[in-house]
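Exercise 7. Given the encoded structure of a 240-residue chain, write a plausible sequence.
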C-alpha cells in the first residue's frame, strides 16, 4: 500500500514528464528518504501554476527519485503526467481519490409494545445516506404470553426494508431493499428477533426510511390468540 506522512517536501527541477529527481528538503521540512524506505508513496507535485497527484515509487540514491507510476488527478482534470519545465515542489499527501467515503452510523430505540394482531409494524426511522451503501438492522427481544399451555410458541417472520423518501416525505409501495428472518418465539422465555438488509447504488445525501414489521406464520401452536410482547428494540444503520 502506498505511504504518506506529514511535513515531507523536496524540490525537483525541470522533470518534464519523467521522474522527480529530488534535490533536498527546505528548512522545516523532512526529506523523502529520511521518512520512507524504497517503495510506493502518494505524492503531490506543484509548480505554482499546475499540480499533479498520484502514486509513485521512491528509490533512494544520489539523488533519490520518485517515479510517476499512476496519476490520480491533475489541476487540468487529466490523468496523464503533466510536463513540468521549472522548479517543482514534491510533497507527501493522500489524494482525495483514495480517502474512504464518509461513514455514518446510527441507532434509534423503539418503544416497548404489546399486540395480538397477526401482523404488526414495529417502527420506522428516517436517515440520510452519507455514501452509496446503507446497511440497516432491526433487533429486539420478543416473548408471548396468555392463558394457554406453557409450551406454546409462535413462528414469526421479522422483515426490514429501506424506502426512498421524496421531497414531500412520501415513500413508494415497494422498498428499494428488504429482507426477513424467521424465528420461533417461545412462551417460556424471551428470544431475539432480528432482520437486516442492505441497499446499494444510493446517491449520497438522499433521504431514506428504514422500517420493520413482524408477522405470525402458519403452523404456530395454540388455538387462543397469544399476546406478543416486544422490548429492547432498536434500529441500527451504517452508511458508507
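Solution.
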Amino acid at each position: 500500500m502506498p505511504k504518506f506522512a506529514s511535513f515531507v517536501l523536496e524540490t525537483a527541477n525541470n522533470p518534464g514528464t519523467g521522474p522527480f529527481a529530488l534535490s533536498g528538503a527546505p528548512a522545516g521540512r523532512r526529506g523523502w528518504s529520511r521518512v520512507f524506505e524504497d517503495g510506493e508513496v502518494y505524492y503531490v507535485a506543484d509548480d505554482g501554476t499546475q499540480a499533479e497527484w498520484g502514486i509513485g515509487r521512491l528509490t533512494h540514491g544520489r539523488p533519490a527519485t520518485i517515479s510517476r507510476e499512476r496519476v490520480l488527478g491533475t489541476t487540468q482534470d487529466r490523468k496523464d503526467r503533466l510536463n513540468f519545465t521549472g522548479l517543482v515542489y514534491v510533497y507527501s499527501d493522500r489524494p482525495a481519490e483514495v480517502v474512504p467515503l464518509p461513514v455514518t452510523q446510527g441507532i434509534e430505540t423503539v418503544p416497548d409494545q404489546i399486540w395480538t394482531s397477526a401482523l404488526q409494524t414495529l417502527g420506522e426511522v428516517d436517515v440520510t445516506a452519507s455514501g452509496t451503501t446503507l446497511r440497516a438492522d432491526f433487533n429486539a427481544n420478543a416473548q408471548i404470553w396468555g392463558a394457554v399451555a406453557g409450551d406454546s410458541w409462535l413462528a414469526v417472520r421479522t422483515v426490514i426494508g429501506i424506502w426512498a423518501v421524496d421531497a414531500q416525505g412520501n415513500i413508494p409501495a415497494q422498498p428499494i431493499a428488504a429482507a426477513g428472518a424467521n424465528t420461533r418465539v417461545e412462551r417460556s422465555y424471551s428470544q431475539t428477533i432480528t432482520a437486516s438488509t442492505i441497499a446499494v447504488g444510493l446517491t449520497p445525501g438522499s433521504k431514506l426510511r428504514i422500517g420493520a414489521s413482524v408477522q405470525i406464520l402458519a403452523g404456530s401452536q395454540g388455538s387462543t390468540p397469544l399476546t406478543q410482547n416486544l422490548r429492547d428494540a432498536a434500529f441500527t444503520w451504517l452508511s458508507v
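Remark. The chain has a mean pLDDT of 92. Students should compare their own answers with the one above.
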